[in-house]
Design a protein that fits this description.
Two copies of one chain form a homodimer. Chain A is built from twelve helices and twelve strands. By secondary structure, the first copy, chain A, is of the alpha/beta class. Chain B binds a DNA duplex (16 and 16 nucleotides) through helix 1, helix 2 and helix 4.
DNA sequence: CTGTTAGCGCATTCAT
DNA sequence: ATGAATGCGCTAACAG
């Protein structure tokens, strides 16, 4: 491949009869340029279709005007919504966004961190993998105060933005209790996941406060697993009359299970799931959900990062964003018309 | 901000008692290094936690090992799935992915193109905005053969990957016809959208072949609009007995409309929508869909790009990927058990 | 207000 | 097999 001669700052300087510094100043909006000269240079820039080289600027300065984002997947609406929000804030701050996926595997995440280090990103937004060892936390320290954890925490010393998982789940559970339900089943997936643990904790607390006995099924990871768990609990001695699901996947499975086995919702079993989903309102009955402030998670995370970049603070901030209980029919409420 | 002294190739060179050239060779896997020296240098690199500067490498070479992706939105599962696939292929080719969103606005897309030009990305994958003027096409020429259009074409001279929109919709329409339906309504959104036009064309052809009169409603952009269109067609002189929807948003609206007005699916009105969606299989009745090869769209697009980067071809390639008709219940078929 | 100069960190001739 | 020197395109002192 023959070296392509792109138009450089020198070309612009020569064509407009000024020095490169002046051109540089014009590009960077410096006010130390005579108005007429500025206009002239801008003209030439347009004529030549000059675009400054990002690489060269980055090299000459100590920042790259770019930030990195690591999420487990991009196929999950949860993460792509976060990515979308982060992307928007980046644009607003004139930064380029680099996106990588970790597949929720620590090793992968470490590789991505390395890439971002090479890219010399100014800051980092990370939805950490569910299971992280000290290795991960140590590597993150390299970015010290230029990294924000979203959804899951990285550890003390790192700023983070999260959902009020425990509180929201407690609220959902309490709602079912207020509907008179006493035998409420909690179905969860991986109990090692911080968010899941928190939600379970909220559930447990709400049950305890009402002096009800908690009924928990963990490690559910398939339709069949959920089916087994629900059926067993339903057919138990004092069967269940309510279910709270720890995420929308489990929630949808649960809905399908109840539907498949003709267990009427909500008359037999009232039901609330964490996470809102596309057709929650369209299913019959419509599904009451805990809606996380997903878009905010990304937005606030990015805003915190930029605030940090502008005026570095040593202490880390931990923000909890409130979820909303979207009341629909599956909990036992009447449809609002 | 005081200049932070990062470890450079010089540090590594000094610490391992060799020249920078040798270190550079080790990094780039050149085979012209004595094995023992190589090992030594690699050791030092690890000890010092050295990470080569992407900016410096880019500047010294004529490529950046990065490619850019422009999609209208990241919140749409269609686009985020494409992004996910592209991202995977990029990783496999050791390239960094830069993602931007155009909000489906040409001006915005042009801005993103400019940013990517500054970034000197090696190549570009673009889902163009629905409405593009010559301006857009002209700007794209700058990237000539290093740009691939996905989903929508940019114009002649540009490589592209698309769905077989017309054919797939013809197949869906034909399927309803085979179920004995004769009054089939096509509901579409923006007729300026290339994909929508193609789908409508496929519908029209299938109807024509069966000597049936086409019934078309365009420019539907809300639940209310769809509701009005369907109700009018349904209550018409010879009411409709089938519907094909041009995308999943319209499809879901249509489903909700039929459900809301107690128009039985499929006995009264059989129904197929373009685009598969999360709960299509869970709704009652389950919804027959035309499933686009979304993931492939992104993957093939990216693969074409990398192939192009490795061995440039002047002629552009236009690939059409086949969609699949996912038979479920709404078309009138029986549920497979 | 403006131009000259010296790096930024790396790949790359060209010698050795 | 290896190193010294040069330049990639730009910004940032430092003069003028």
């Amino acid at each position: 491949m023959s070296r392509i001669r792109r138009t450089t700052i020198h070309d612009v300087a020569r064509a407009s009869g000024v020095g490169t510094t002046t051109v540089s100043r014009v590009i960077n909006g410096g006010k130390l340029v005579a108005p007429r000269v500025r206009v002239r240079v801008e003209e030439v820039i347009r004529e030549l279709g000059y675009q400054p080289s990002h690489a060269a600027r980055s090299l000459a300065q100590e920042h790259t005007q770019s930030i990195g984002l690591i999420v487990p997947r991009l196929t999950d609406p949860f993460f792509s919504l976060i990515a979308s929000a982060v992307q928007r804030i980046c644009r607003a701050n004139r930064h380029t966004l680099l996106i990588s996926t970790s597949l929720d595997v620590e090793e992968q995440a470490l590789e991505e961190l390395a890439v971002f280090e090479q890219q010399r990103v100014d800051g980092l937004i990370v939805v950490p993998p569910a299971r992280q060892t000290t290795l991960f936390r140590e590597y993150c320290r390299k970015f010290s105060d230029r990294i924000i954890a979203v959804d899951l925490p990285i550890g003390s010393g790192f700023s983070s933005v999260q959902t009020d998982n425990a509180h929201a789940m407690a609220k959902a559970t309490k709602h079912l209790i207020e509907h008179g339900r006493k035998r409420i089943l909690f179905i969860g997936s991986d109990p090692e996941l911080h968010t899941i643990r928190e939600r379970q904790r909220g559930y447990a607390e709400a049950m305890a406060r009402a002096r009800l006995e908690p009924i928990v099924c963990e490690k559910l990871d398939s339709f069949e697993a959920v089916e087994g768990a629900i059926l067993q609990a339903y057919k138990g001695k004092p069967g269940i009359d309510g279910i709270v699901a720890a995420n929308s996947t489990l929630g949808i499975y649960a809905f399908q299970v109840l539907q498949k086995h003709r267990i009427s919702i909500p008359s037999r079993v009232a039901f609330i799931t964490f996470d809102d989903f596309a057709l929650a309102d369209t299913l019959r009955p419509s599904v009451t959900c805990v809606a996380q402030p997903i878009e905010q998670l990304g937005r606030v995370g990015a805003e915190m990062l930029f605030a940090q970049l502008v005026s570095p603070q040593s202490r880390s901030r931990n923000v909890q964003l409130p979820s909303e209980l979207l009341i629909r029919e599956s909990c036992g409420c009447k449809r609002r018309s």
